[in-house]
UniProtKB/TrEMBL annotation:
Pfam family, one: PhoD_N
SUPFAM superfamilies reported in the protein's UniProt record: Metallo-dependent phosphatases
Protein origin, superkingdom: Bacteria
Protein name: Alkaline phosphatase D family protein
Gene3D superfamilies: PhoD-like phosphatase, Purple acid phosphatase-like, N-terminal
The Phospholipase D N-terminal domain, residue ranges: 34-131
Organism of this sequence: Streptomyces vastus
InterPro entries according to UniProt: Metallo-depent_PP-like, PhoD-like_MPP, PhoD-like_sf, PhoD_N, Phospholipid_Metab_Enz
Domain PhoD-like phosphatase metallophosphatase, residue spans: 144-480
Amino acid sequence: MGGIAGLAALAQVPLAHGALAAPRPPSGGYPFSLGVASGDPSPDGFVLWTRLAPDPLAAHGGGMRPQPVAVEWKVATDEAMTKVVRQGTVAALPELAHSVHVEPTGLRPDREYWYQFRYGADLSPVGRTRTTPAPGTRVSSMSFAFASCQNWSNGYYPAYRHLAGEDIDLVVHLGDYVYEGGIPADGGYRRTPVPATLSEQCRTLDRWRLQYALYKTDPDLQLAHARFPWIVTWDDHEVVNDYAGEESQYAGSIKELRAAAYQAFYEHQPLRRASIPQTDEMRLYRRLGYGDLAEFNVLDGRQYRSVPPCGWGEAPACAAGYDPSVTMLGRRQESWLLDGLAASGARWNVLANNVMMGRLDHDGPSGDILWHDAWDGFPAARNRLTDHLAQAEVSNPVIITGDWHSTFVNDIKRDFDRPDSPVVATEFVGTSISSNGDGEVYGPYYGPMIQYNPHIRFFDGDRRGYVRCTLDRGQWRTDLRMVTTVSRSDAPAYTFASFAVEDGTPGAHQA
Ligand SMILES: [Fe+2]
């Protein structure tokens, strides 16, 4: 292993205390300014994350000197951190922005744990997390929330403040965790002023690190991370708007740009070793089980997708979209997904998906305009998936999606070109945490199109929030949790609408 992979492997090696330079007091600030996080829970462990950044918006290095330092970590069965069951010391390397990714193992399934880091004299906040039930264990219920699209300049994160107060098992993030754009000096929409170092668009690793640092200073985001294990994927804005594979309509070939962006994503998320960036790929797609009740297929809809065959963005449908070579997930991920779905014994099979799978016919009989950045641009790939859901008799496929800054509840048809074809899955598209800000934004534009799409059971384009899902053996319930405004971090939340999917019957009804 060379490069980043080698360094990251080194960072995983447990260190004898004092093996590295003793941490000197850095430039004065608290080193855990970006909070703590846990992720990818399994029956016997999870990933613990933090990044040392005593001066998080400093132009380079977050206020750390460019040398490796030792960070201690602990896992306990109590919030006071007195009953410690695992502990160790790891290296935080400058090559990985002094981020830390620890994977404790050998813990008990379906249990709550607490964790904490120490650097020098400073202790991190205590995070709470939990393991998942053992494979095949009969599980009567579970709940989770999903979120996406948190443009910092567009508003505060009251949605995360409320999400942090939920009684749920985990959080799924579906992408647009950060946006690539420069931050205006006044911080944007009613946010606080930021240093001029943030005014440029993100193109380099250093600039990306600043962007993640800025976002992660948000106290409500930190609260939500510290409270639950997260399962994260990305969408386009973690690199550049609407990109496909190594191409962008705005930036051309993005190979180098993408490598820097992917590394920064790894550095700032609670991801396992398997996601350490390699030369040609960063493996993000993966599968997590929750006893016999649910399986989460976490999809990467950006890294391997074809350039949209009918054109970028809003464009007419075309025959090239049906060419067998068209792919959204890439051949390897697609086979992995289809094989896994066929083999799954879970009652609810969740696809954590980036862009909308349901069709949105923009103009009905008068034309054939679609949005080609979503699955509508890749009908051959969508048909392979929907055919498989039917043929393999996959149990209760439910697709959870981000991207659109809008809510959609969709029946997924086996073939959207044949309106009489059966419903094979249910899709919930959640709105944004903050992106698009307050006010009527997408309702006036997309609202009039809904009439051409009878498979769309519900649409709202003008609210911000997150989605809470509660699963038991007979029913999946979805509650749309909205906030009244993103102009304040303490805005109230309310349940805007609720839906249910019955076991064995694809398609949601209002509950
Ligand atoms: Fe977005």
